[in-house]
Amino acid sequence: MLEVRDLVTVYGAIEALKGVTLSAKQGEITCILGPNGAGKTTLMYSIAGILKPRSGSVSVNGREITGSSAPYALACGIALVPENRLVFPSMSVEENLRAGAFRRLRGDRSAVLEDIDKAYVRFPSLKRRRDQAAGTLSGGEQQMLAVARAMMSRPNILMMDEPSLGLAPLVVSEVFSIISQLNKEGVSILLVEQNAHKALQIASHVYLLDQGRVAFSGTPGDIGEDDIIQRAYLGSKAA
Amino acid sequence: MIDFIQTTLDGLSIGSAYALIALGFTLVFGVMRRINLSYGPSIMLGAFAGTWAFVTLEAQPWLVAVVTIAGTVAVGMYVERLCFWAIRKDAAIASMVSSFVIWMQLEEVATILLPGRTYPYPELFKFGGIDIGPYFLRMEHVTTLAVAMFMLVVLRLLLYRTRFGLALRAVSESSEAAVYMGISPVRITFWAFVFASFIGGVAGYLLLAADQQVTPYFGLWATFKGLIAMMLGGLGSIPGAIVGGLLLGVIEAHTQWYLGNAVKDLTAYLVLFLVLVLRPGGLLGQGIVERHAQAFRRI
């Protein structure tokens, strides 16, 4: 459903993406691994319309969205859970969820309220804290809120940038079980992770990104975990 | 005792005008975390457009009000495009400096439009005021107070009950995350500026109609009073802007009455200094400062 072809994105003179081709299939968890500076976040920003790629193409369900605005990418069903969660700290949990449905608030207000109730069923701890300022939640709860907020736009594909970053190990497991739960309910997921061990357990397809290029593409079974870790974190030359 | 209460009432009257100006500053600062120094001069130029219509075209007082407010909004849009829209978020100092430069430009334009020092400004009411027991209130001041309270209510409804308000608060909390929600910070910022300018135009009209005159120094005066009121009440806090404005008005009125005119501004600065030392976020702004710091420390 999501097709990325020969994507090149630059920051000034630095080529962060040097022609990335990948696809995320309907109903799957596609995982992107790679060392720091490989271009993982840049790739997500280029897909979501935050950064304008220099060349290449991005399409969702056959619809070309290359270089479109962030609101347009969102309207095409691409939602992003950003790194470090970025919840709105002084706003209540419920207001964060309403902000997530911003594009839909003009029309189907009652459907938005239904979706908020659904989010509370999925994340009971958010319901308990619905009127609490989001900044007072724990890191894990903030991550849940960031996911629930992104889901409020009813995306076809949910992109998650390092959802386990800075969380306690127990909370990380919880976050990953939520990701696979969402996936079972039919949400396609594009996951960027540093935690290769956890990511490989739930991924349907893995891409290894290194220095702006796809260094490996296959199923987790095609490549051993040791090999991934070797190539992702020690650099491909070591492998 | 009668003197004390009468002075307090006078202070609240002028303070409500300060509160309105501080409200405009707060709206812009809250959304962008940037200070628009040319806010006062924008109001001054709007008022000059109004008094120009009054002096040369002999416009009716209601028309002067319309020209003043519309003029302030137009100048506000100009400032936003030039100092804020054109300069990226990470260059906050650059937009503050350029808003200072625009300030100079606006004063020049005003003196070209009307080269004299002082111009008449039409009064709001022909009748004087109302007596409540031993106390006397000017109609203009009662109106200013009522308008300030009304604006506070409107602003709160706008911010907490509407889709635009939700987007505006989202942008002010994290414009980066707001983009991911499909909100356009550029558009939201523009409308926040328009609304702030509208409030400024109303405040300027009420103040000048009470004074019945306008000078090019009004811009400097408005920026100073608005900034002090905002910092007293709390940076980025809407109730803080109102509290800060009223407090500043009352402090000034009392020091003027008991200690004389020369001490008036000095006392205001002293109180500001003490507040900033004891509560750096302002009287009502401390919570916001702390919540933001906390949110990023969570694990």
Quaternary arrangement of the chains shown?
Answer: heterodimer
Task: Please state the overall shape of chain B, judged from the principal axes of the Cα atoms.
Answer: globular
| Global Rg of chain A | 18 Å
- Biggest sheet architecture of chain B: 2 strands, antiparallel
Q: State the distance separating the first and last CA atoms of chain A.
A: 32 Å
Spell the H/E element sequence of chain B.
Answer: HHHHEEEHHHHEHHHH
Give start-end ranges of low-pLDDT stretches of chain A. none
The computed structural class of chain B is mainly alpha
What strand line-up does the widest sheet of chain A have? 6-7-8-3-9-10
Determine the number of helices of chain B (DSSP H or I, runs of at least 4 residues).
12
Look at the helices and sheets of chain A and give the structural class: alpha/beta
Structural features, described:
The complex is a heterodimer of chains A (239) and B (299). Chain A is α/β, with parallel strands linked by helices. Chain A has helices at 40-48, 70-75, 93-100, 109-122, 124-128, 139-151, 169-184, 196-202, 225-233; strands at residues 2-11, 14-24, 29-33, 55-60, 63-64, 78-81, 157-161, 188-192, 205-210, 213-218. Helices cover 36% and strands 25% of the residues of chain A. In chain A, strand 1 and strand 2 (14-24) form a beta hairpin. In chain A, helix 3 runs parallel beside helix 6. The radius of gyration of chain A is 18 Å and the shape is globular. The mean pLDDT of chain A is 89. Chain B is mostly helical and 299 residues long. Chain B has twelve helices and four strands, in the order H-H-H-H-E-E-E-H-H-H-H-E-H-H-H-H. In chain B, the strands form two sheets. Chain B has a two-stranded antiparallel sheet with strand order 1-4. Chain B is globular. The interface between A and B is medium-sized, with 38 and 24 residues.
